[in-house]
Amino acid sequence: MKRRFLAIPLLVVPAALFAAQAERLTIRMVPAPNQTLHVRTSMDMTMTMTPDLPADGARSIDPVTTSMTTIAEHTTTVGPTDEHGLYGARVVCDSASQTVTINGKPLPMPSATTDQLVGQVITFSYDDQGKMVDVASEGGPDPKFAGSLKQMLTSALAAAPPITLSVGESVTVPMQMNLPIPTPAAGPMTSSGETRYTLTSVTFDGADRIAHLAVVTSNATILPMASAGVTRSASMDLRTTSEGKMDVNVDRGIVLHTETRTTIDGSTGIAGQSAVPPMRTHGTMTMTADLTK
Question: Does the predicted TM-score (pTM) go above 0.85?
């Protein structure tokens, strides 16, 4: 009799796993109400800008390689739903650090560069379906930076609806953004592309279902820039391809872990300007984010 009772869990667990693999899951990448999350993110980026061969009489420019590492921690406090089914998530940057090298030499970074991130607050508002309906910013010493960040996040996150998949299925989500840049020399940045999500497996953490996704993104970005005091137009044209993975707690709407590696290729040029040759850009960027508690 005792052996029979011991055998029951051995039968139930595989059955639950099989059912989880077979069912279609609706995966929301926004947190459910009434919880507090602590997340640590890191980004390592290396970019090399190489000039094309200059025309006769033009000044030669050496290649420049810039490497940057950024680490940040933030706390997200998700409130309850109101009578209309709306709820908010308040994100506060707790700490930030950054190191930069140019051609292998450390670049001293003023503390204000990261200080403006610490204390920055972004509040997202969601409806009962997990769709973002508004975003507001507060804190930080630079209102223009905060306003641009608000518009950028609105464009980016509004294009990320919930997805419904079973194991082995994929869905492609288009992306189109027009992003303001808080730099006088830059015009609005246009960015378009698509992201393909593939549900590779489902596991359990207690009663919570954990969706494991493979993520592939292709993107094209154009950033027009003004040429210092002249009428010639300049632009930066970037093409990026990213591959990575993501683990999502389906029942709590939490991205537990994500990692991506991005390849960047592009060019920068000034129309009608022969003294400055077009620049070719190549780089890589690795990003990770982990729920710490």
Answer: no
